[in-house]
Amino acid sequence: MLTIIVPAFNEARNVGHVIANIAEVFAEVPGKRVIVVDDGSADDTQQVLAPLLQAHGWLEAVQHPRNLGLGAALRTGYLRCEDGVAAWLPADGQFDAKWILNFYRTWERTRCAIVVGNITASDRLRSDGLFRLFLSKAVRVLFFLRKQRKINFNGLMLFERAGIPIGSFKATTGSINFDILEHFERQGGRVEYEEIAVGPRLSGESKVNNLRTYFAVLRDMLFR
After folding, report:
1. pLDDT of amino acid 166
2. Which CATH superfamily, name and number, covers 2-223?
3. Which pTM value belongs to this model?
């Protein structure tokens, strides 16, 4: 079974479009689950989701009572997926669901442990600007100086869920995905890398393109 986690925080204007994109791309994929984790949204996210939950039997929703961060939202979703493969797709519409389908086909073909998406620097620059590209590079340099290893991940991922101690990963940011990749690398699992593209948000402002988030990511990656 394929489970796609969609973390959402105040994405009422975007999450419906993301679900529609998933429904179209995965129309011929049986046995899928999509879990939207509403991370304490204060907008109309729940109202947008209500009719979608009625329309799609494969769609589920979980709501945090308050905003706990991207890492907590992903952890909540991953813990609800106990077998098969899990992937994640943000609710802002920057990534097309086709990338997850490509990952899934790669996993079906290779039976690798994890498929990792990489965004080119030029693509990241076009979508998010020089500020985010600079911060991302700075985090990677500091991580390398601290742990003497490179980070080979900066986008989406799909991985085999069984045997991953998700509950032990305490990151409050998206760096929980680095923990998952690092787990597979330590275990000697096969890792497949694929280039993916990122676009602009469908609407609204980024929740992560700021110094506060990057300091939090750095804290998670270096000290947790």
Report:
1. 92
2. Spore Coat Polysaccharide Biosynthesis Protein SpsA; Chain A (3.90.550.10)
3. 0.85
